Amino acid sequence: MAAYYVKAKKIIVGDALEPKENAGLLIQDGKIAAIYDEMSSLPIPEGAQVLDYGEATLIPGMIDCHNHLALDTRLENHLVKMEDCEAEQTIRAIKTMRDDLVSGVTTSRCCGDRFYIDVTCRNAQRQGRLMGPKLVVSGIGMRAAHGHGYVGMPHTGVLEFQKRSRENILHGVDFLKVFTTKVINATPFIFHFMTPEELKAVVTEARSVNLPTACHCSGGQGLNDCVEAGIDCLEHVYYITPEQVELVKKTDRWVTYTPSYALNDTLLFKFSPKDREGSLKEKEIIIGCLSNAIQGGLKFGIGTDGIHQGLAQEACYISQLGAANRDVLAGITINAARLCRVDEKTGSIAVGKAADLVAVAGDPLADIEALKKVTAVIQDGNIIVS
Ligand SMILES: [Zn+2]
After folding, report:
1. Chain-centre distance of CA 346, in angstroms?
2. Which domains does the chain have, with CATH numbers?
3. What's the rounded Cα separation, in Å, for the pair 202 and 225?
4. If pLDDT is split at 50, 70 and 90, which confidence band does 38 have?
5. Residue 235 Cα, ligand 1 centroid: separation in angstroms?
6. Structure confidence at residue 17 (pLDDT)
């Protein structure tokens, strides 16, 4: 495999995301083999090809913490398309994977796709047969029979959730995903569709093989039930209360923020009139809840929830909601990697980790909007965009 010596005006290195001026790094065998600062006297191996990104800033490859391969919000009636046949959904997944990778997403966490498309695509990507982010997958998302979820499949009772958990595990998933609430609620009482026993059954199955769990959970009693059951990551948390922020913090759980579903008016206008109306009404409430959670310092990752090529925009929303730029960047790099349990391999620019790198015009630590200006993408030492 080719060796590269990569130069840029700034490189954001290490788990602490520290900027290094006029630094360089060496890529060998798909990994970061050395990081050079200006004064460094480490030798650049002969034959290494020089990649000079000039005025750009080099950041770790981005990680989308909440994605669905076959859900593509850019399409008309994208939710109805979740009923498409397996082949159609797979073709869509292949396209969204390519789109995400060229936008700088080198790893993506799939929170439910039908037909084990995510497992198939994860394996194909690993084998070099498919271009896309490295995938962290949950297989079949599990919801209650009467519950929310266009992506998840219906289940009733502890036994059915157990059975599907085991089937997912047998397929080789990386975590288990359940859905207990709706997305946007629009009523004061937040419905929750899974019983505490069903949640606990899934957690027990996951823990028996050392896998983490995640739950689509907007708030209400469902959120408390998730924490009580031992769910590791709470997805969306649009209605998290100050008390729940304390609870989540005390119990050291992760949250994934997917702000567009509340904040992005362009997306809202793609919903059905009823959903749209509910979302618009709820917007201010959700902004308050998410800002409060960010202020409360919950450990978080950021996800697009199927808004392909939209991760930078999600990051900008989290910044607008009050997060410091470094924390926002961590939410799509090192902390995202921790949430996905891949931080030993990726998520920061460190010697020994995968050469997953993105060059952006500008410095995202100074102006988070710089994340939208991707000029180069490298994944596992392969040049994807230059
Ligand atoms: Zn989702």
Report:
1. 13
2. 4-60+347-385 (2.30.40.10), 62-340 (3.20.20.140)
3. 13
4. confident
5. 8
6. 98
**pLDDT above 70 covers what percent of the chain?**
96
Query: What is the 140 CA–ligand 1 centroid distance (Å)?
Result: 12
Q: Give residue 41 CA to ligand 1 midpoint distance, Å.
A: 47
- What confidence score (pLDDT) does residue 266 get? 78
What is the 48 CA–ligand 1 centroid distance (Å)? Answer: 42
Q: Is the pLDDT of residue 130 over 70?
A: yes
Q: Is the pLDDT of residue 318 over 80?
A: yes
Count of CA atoms in the C-beta half-sphere (13 A) of 20: 22
Q: Tell me how far the alpha carbon of residue 86 lies from the centroid of ligand 1, in angstroms.
A: 19
Edge-to-edge strand list for the sheet holding 176-179: 153-155, 142-144, 176-179, 213-217, 233-236, 254-257, 300-302
pTM: 0.96
Rounded distance from Cα 111 to ligand 1 centre (Å): 6
Burial class of residue 188 (count of CB atoms within 10 Å of its CB; 0-12, 13-18, 19+): exposed
- Give residue-wise pLDDT tens across range 140-183: 999 999 998 788 999 999 999 999 999 999 999 999 999 999 87
Rg over CA atoms, the chain = 20
Angle at 242 between CA 239 and CA 245, to 5 degrees: 80
Other beta carbons within 10 Å of 91: 12
Q: Is 250 exposed, middle or buried (0-12, 13-18, 19+ CB in 10 A)?
A: exposed
In this prediction, residue 79 has a pLDDT band, given cuts at 50, 70 and 90, of confident
Strands (E), 111-247: 134-137, 142-144, 153-155, 176-179, 213-217, 233-236
Tokens of 328: 């926002």
Q: Which residue has the higher pLDDT, 276 or 148?
A: 148
For 184, list phi and psi in degrees, rounded to 5: -100, 135
